[in-house]
Every structure is written in C-alpha cells, then in structure tokens.
Amino acid sequence: MKLSILALSIAASVTLTSWNAHTAQTQAANSQTAEASQTESQRLAAFFADNFQQRLHRSPQFQSYLGYKWDYDKWDNISETFIEQSSELAKKQLKHLKSFDESQLSQEEKVSLALNKVSLERQLANDEFRHHTYIMDQFSAYHTMVPSFLINVHRVTNIDDAQAYISRLQKVKTLFAQVIDQLRIRQKIGVFPPKWSYDQMLQASKNVISGAPFDNSDDASSIWQDFQTKVSKLDMTDSERKTLLDGAKEALLTSVQPAYEALINELTVQRELSPEGDGVWRLPDGDKWYANRLAWFTTTDLTADKVHKIGLENVERIHQAMRSIMKKVKFDGDLNEFFEFMRSDKQFYYPNNDVGRDAYLVEAKALIDTMRDKLPDYFSLIPEADMIVKRVEPFREKSAGKAFYQSPAKDGSRPGIYYANLYDMNDMPTYQMEALAYHEGIPGHHMQRAIAQELEGIPEFQKYSSFTAYTEGWGLYTEELAKDMGFYQDPYSDFGRLAMELWRACRLVVDTGIHSKKWSREQAINYLIENTPNPENDSVKAIERYIAMPGQATAYMIGKLKIMELREWSKKELGDEFDIRAFHTVVLKDGPVPLNILEQKVKKWVASVK
Question: What is the residue range of the signal peptide feature (predicted)?
Fold first, then answer.
C-alpha cells in the first residue's frame, strides 16, 4: 500500500464531513453504481481496504508503529465517546460483512472474510466488559508507554519530526486526563488492580519525571535525554536547535510533569480503594470476565477447569523429560535439588554488572546470527526486515517482563527488536538463552510478525490481527523446532528449552488458579518456585504479570500444542510427501488466525497434497 494513496484516502475522509446534503447524496448514488459494477472479490477487497483505512487514521500511534507520519503529533483518543464510536463502527462493518456472497469468492478470500468476521465479533464481545480491563497496571500501561513510545517508535529525521515530538509532549496532559477519566469509570463499578500493583505503578511514574529538567539532578530524565540525542543528529543551525530544545523543555515542565503528578495522585487515591485479593474473581461479574479472557486469548471454548487440567498434565510430562537430562549430566539428586542447582550455580549466570550485561547481548546476537543460516532448510518464507537485540531501558526494566519483541516498521525504517531485560542478571540464566532468543527473535516472533507485514495478496487488516494463541503459540513452537533443526547441543541448553516450556505449562495452572480458583499471589508464586528451576524473583514478576493480564498467559501452551498436533497429524497423513517448509508456509501465509481456522487451513493443505 503506497503512502500517497493512504494520504489521499485520509484527505478524502476529512473532506466528507464538510459536504452538503446534495453532494453526499450524489456521491452515495455514484458509489452504489460503481459497487454494482464490481465483482464480489473487488467489493470485498474495497470493503477490507476502507475498514483498514478507518482503523489506521483513528489511531495515530498505530500509524507511527507502521512508519507513517500523518498524525505524528498526536496520541490515540481513549475517551469514552471515541470508544463508543469504535463500537458502533464495528457493528456497521459486521452487518456489511454478512452481505457478501461466499460462493463467488476464492478460498483465500473466504479465509479473509472469516478472519474479519471473527475479529469484529471478538471486539464486540469484549465491549461488554471493556471497563473490566485494567486501564492501568504495573506491567504495561500509559505511564511507561509514553516514554517507551517516544524513545523507540517516534523517529526524528528532520525538524518537522522534532516539532511533532514536542507536540506529543504537550498533549500528554490531555492523554493522561483521559486515562484518569477511565480510572474513575472503573472506580464506580469496583474494578481495581491489586494494591501491590499500585506501588509499582507509582514508582515507575516517579522514575519518568526524575532527572533534568524535572529536578536539579545532573542526570537527564529518559525522555529529555532521548530528545536531545535525536536533535543533536539533525543538520540545523544552533538557533534552530536551541528553539527545539527550549520547546521540549517547556513541554516537559508544563505538560508532562503535571500530567504525571495528576496520575500519581489518582493512583494514590485508588490504591486505598482496591479490594483484597488478586484474581478477577474479586471483581463484579469476574467469572464471566475471565471466561471472556480465556476465549479471547486461546481462541477456543476451553473452560478454566479444562485449562488447569491440561496444565497439570503437561507439567508432569516435562518433569519426566527433565529427569532424562539429569541422567545425561549425571546429576546425583532429585528434580527439586536439580532445580536448586540450576538456580544457584554460578556457571549458569553472567556477572550482575554492565560487563555481564554486554556479554549477554553479544551472545544473544550470535545465537540469532547462527540461526539465520539454517532458516532456508526449514522455511520458504523468510522476512526481509532486519532484527536487533536490545536491552530494556532503565526507566521500565524493574517492572517489565523477562523478554519481549517489538515489530519492525512496515517501511523498513525501524527494525524488529528483541528486548532482553537485564535488570538483574540472576534472572537471566545462560541455559535459557537459546530458547529465549529463538522465541522472541528468529524463528519466533520476528519471523511470524515480519513475514505477516510483508505478505502480498492479503488485506492489510489481516497482517495485524490479534490472535494471541497463534502468535505466542508460534513462538513457543519454534523453541522446540530449534531442537529439530539441530540446536541445543549442550544438554543444559536443552534443559533450558524444557524449562521454558515448563514455564508455559505452569502458566495454565497458576493463571486459572489465580483467577478462577482464588489462589493468592503468594500461593501462585510458591507453585512456580516448587515446580520450575526459575529464580524466585522471576516467579514473583511472572505472577504479577498474570494477575495484571488475566488469561493472556494461557495462550502460549494452548497454541503450541495445537501447532504441534497439526504438524504430527500432517506427517502421519502425508508420510514421505510431508515437507516441513510447506507446512510452515501454510501456517504463516495468511497472517495470525484463530486456532480453528489454522486447523482448517492445514487440513485443506493436506488434502490438496494427497
């Protein structure tokens, strides 16, 4: 999709609001005439393109993620009015979607239609519970999103970009006013994250407005340092540079600082109102909300009890595989003693200082580079987008997850990023390095997401659909795929692979335990410590994340099990005709999909090969 075409589309949509009634009626008649002359495939393509355009220019931040700079000076609108408009728009789109005659569509178009339909239905199902979602939590919310977005997404290649950066700083006050409004809506219906979550949000918020120019510190705050660095690389006069720096400093002091102070005050008040307990069972209609979350993240109809049972079964399976590793390395002791050995032996950890952190990043990059060389043997689809490994920034590393991935810009201006959280090197054992790099980088998230962005012949919306069981299931699947590719030659690294799979199996147990079976935070933490080799701090941060994002943690293992099931079934059905590269193409070629549609795709592929 060309930027010029998109820009014209936006200009046209803005002009629509100023048309008089006669012009609008004439255009509508012309549109109907044009639509009548189109084939069903053309009508569907136009429908998808128009809907994606609407979604795109309703979200300045999504535009920036994709590399477009139309509303480069704005944040997303999260007001209640805007959310209501989005819901009404989804209802209209879903109604229109039912008008297409599937008998006149290709197989690929039928998949696209089904994906769009289920995406809209999921959006509307969520709308019933939209105020149950924590608008703020310690794991990932607006207090850390603002600096992270400006630092990692907002590129500054000219003066206009720098001025847009300043404008975004000036609008933080408005954005946070909307956040506070949403917090108060939730307060009225009794939706609060747990008390301990507020402590972390408050500390992280204070971190953002610490350092110059917010105080007399010699150290610059993260945003101020980022803006100065970006502006220093521009070709401009000293006077122009001073004007930009002065403008950013003023915006930081008159918009960003008071916005954070207002948010801090609101969070302080709400902390005292939060009811005791950790899971969503403590919220009004919490059981219905959790069922919604499981359906959303797993794309199945699995109940909490069934998910819990699957988790327990896989924990036992992986424990047995780990005992085999113990025999290989001739460890004398039981599994829990082996866990303690893996947690505490210094051979598995880099020094907890900058030397150790640098060494970790170097090794992680080397693992990714080695994997790249093997990809053609297992994949026909290989992304063009580059990927880098980066340390999580200091302002958010204390509350951020162990590792995560950020997609590249569609135009190639920003690479994909595998973030490693190196705040405490004791949480990042070397025996997990391989599996972690393969999951977050290649052939995991970077392969899947970059390929999806670069796919041709499918609607734009399809490239950015959200089906967590598919995306995270793929990431976990590739950890085991790497073993098939000949990696994990060190038995301790193979143990690390199993440890990470075990972690995802335990997630099924603790997530349902917390939100359905009323487990406490401490009970869930103890389950992880007793059943995995991960350090205690790792377990604490993980459980706090699962509490903040109910249901999300269940998607990984449920998705991976389905992909493995489909691969093994395909092998059995096709025998010598099975081609792993063709299987991966079938899985990846339509972008993210629900697990039931993935199963349909694989079965149709097997039938076609037969």
Answer: 1-23
The dihedral built from the CA positions of residue 263, 198, 152 and 2, taken in this order, carries a sign that is negative
**Is the bond leading into 258 cis (omega within 30 degrees of zero)?**
no
Instruction: Give the tokens for residue 321.
Output: 């595989």
Measured in whole angstroms, the distance separating CA 164 from the mean position of its chain's CA atoms is: 25
Per-residue pLDDT of 405-415, as tens digits, reads 999 988 888 89
Query: What are the Cα distances from residue 486, in Å, to 239, 370, 566?
Result: 58, 11, 21
d(CA 487, CA 50) in angstroms, rounded, equals: 45
User: In this structure, what DSSP letter does residue 415 have?
Assistant: -
Is pLDDT of 142 > 50? yes
Phi/psi of residue 565, nearest 5 degrees: -60, -45
CA distance linking residue 266 with residue 202, whole number of Å: 10
The per-residue pLDDT for 37 is 58
Q: Is the pLDDT of residue 378 over 70?
A: yes
Side chain identity, residue 575: G
Q: Where are the domains of the chain?
A: 3-128, 142-273, 291-561
The amino acid at residue 58 is: R
Nearest to 553 by CA among 241, 257, 279: 279
CA distances from 546 to 57, 520, 553 (A): 32, 12, 6
* CA count, 13 A, side-chain hemisphere, 131: 18
Q: Report d(CA 179, CA 129) in Å as an integer.
A: 17
Q: What is the pTM of this model?
A: 0.85
Contacts of 331 (CB under 8 A, 6+ apart): 337, 338, 341
The overall average pLDDT reported for the chain is 92
Beta-strand pair 387-391/403-406: unpaired
Order of all β-strands in the sheet with 416-420: 387-391, 416-420, 403-406
State the pLDDT at residue 140: 82
Name the maximum alpha-carbon separation found in the chain: 86
Q: pLDDT tens for residues 254-283?
A: 999 999 999 999 999 999 999 999 999 999
Q: What pLDDT is attached to residue 411? A: 84
Q: What is the distance of C-alpha 375 from the center of its chain?
A: 24
Mean pLDDT in residue range 580-606: 96
